[in-house]
Amino acid sequence: xxxxxxxxxxxxxTLSKKLLQNNVEVxxxxxGRSKKTKQLAIDSGxxxxxxxxxxxxxxxxxxxxxxxxxxxxxxxxxxILCNGVFIDLNNISPENTKKxxxxxxxxxxxxxxxxxxxxxxxxxxxxxSTIIVSGKxxxxxxxLNNYGLNVKVISHDIGDASTIKMLRSIYTKGVTxxxxxxxxxxxxxxxxxxxxxxxxxxxxxxxxFQTKSxxxxxxxxxxxxxxxxxxxxxxxxxxxxxxxxxxxxCMSKATKNKFKSLKNSDF
Amino acid sequence: xxxxxxxxxxxxxTLSKKLLQNNVEVxxxxxGRSKKTKQLAIDSGxxxxxxxxxxxxxxxxxxxxxxxxxxxxxxxxxxILCNGVFIDLNNISPENTKKxxxxxxxxxxxxxxxxxxxxxxxxxxxxxSTIIVSGKxxxxxxxLNNYGLNVKVISHDIGDASTIKMLRSIYTKGVTxxxxxxxxxxxxxxxxxxxxxxxxxxxxxxxxFQTKSxxxxxxxxxxxxxxxxxxxxxxxxxxxxxxxxxxxxCMSKATKNKFKSLKNSDF
Lengths: 267, 267
What we know:
- The structure is a homodimer.
- By secondary structure, chain A is an alpha/beta fold.
- Chain A is built from eleven helices and eight strands.
- Chain A has an eight-stranded mixed β-sheet, sandwiched between helices.
- The N and C termini of chain A lie far apart (about 50 Å).
- In chain A, helix 2 (about 35-45) links the parallel strand 2 and strand 3 (about 45-50).
- Chains A and B meet through strand 8, helix 7, helix 8, helix 9 and helix 11 of A and strand 8, helix 7, helix 8, helix 9 and helix 11 of B.
């Protein structure tokens, strides 16, 4: 079995290491990529091919791990060339996932090839991190559980994995916004340490660590999170009729407003 | 040491049992109370006095555990008679806590007596439940840690304990509203079980149990929670200047709207 990575950032590096430790052949190409990426690929010990076309054709499983912005273009240019299973791991929206699936089926995607919708839950460096997959051939990705990865099949429908990512985003971003509002008031009053301890009594033992980590990462990601809330609202817009939308998305709208106000502040 | 309870519901019953097991003398009065309350007091084994006046005068620590609505009246009528430490455990707002403190100091409260601000975090029946106290004499309540109770002093300032309760309420009610919005969408799509599992990967192991318990209890408490959000918004109003209020309370306003929409629905 040969696994190919398009894009060689932290995700590909971390997964490659695990696969190589389990004696899986891993290939990539770094044509036109940054010096840093090239060095990362060399350090990992994967085989480096001269072109993405070759990479796509030679992979039994071709993993797209570039960025949400380039995911669709990568799928159109190289995913289409795949002779095995092509999986997108760019955490893209359900809508974009379906765009890829439609493009492939309308453009002579090899009938023996298949497309799988994949998302990563948790930091890739964490032992808890899990790749959740959906699509007809998602079971073929689940085989990687035997080779050091942590994969969970949730359904055979393209779009379900990316929908889970979107739904999870409603929850985690909303909780971050609530935590910000709560601890901003607590700090204003001078009771934030006492509040961390008081909430931890009924929340998880990990509450203080997790919440501080959420708030710290918000400071550097407020602009991105603000933009991602637009995707969340578009998604909710696609789920509900107009008459139900206002009440059924009020927390997400407030979350977007919270991130907007932070974006324009010194926080 | 003699501990007196005004009000004998679940809180007084649970705390009494622990105190009695630790050989503390516990007294109450059930004058004019329901048959159920009278029976609960008899079952507990506490000593029952004929009047609240006697109860107040004979208690070294007098605990008001009635309801937020009656807390102020109880303090004015009986708390004022206390010759030891009078503690309010009715989960009232910081504003009402300060009203009690002001009333007592302006109405010849025994100079040797003192008032303590107390809140209960967690279900009283849970082993984790903690009584958080603040006020000059809160250390005198902390002695009860030696007699089976779980008490934590957070400061010597009246209002700090009830402020912690209010701040905690911003967080927990907000998270409940976010969880409702998220899982309503997930159910609409038919992916709620998968979503519970996916979020649990990075949240606590207890996530599914705790969230389902939050959503179940919301169904029966949506009207009360809606009203409590008014208290939260009044509180935030007292913390911030008008120009900052909108952004600094947007999640809490949305939480109120979410509960309002549920109140008017079949949920």
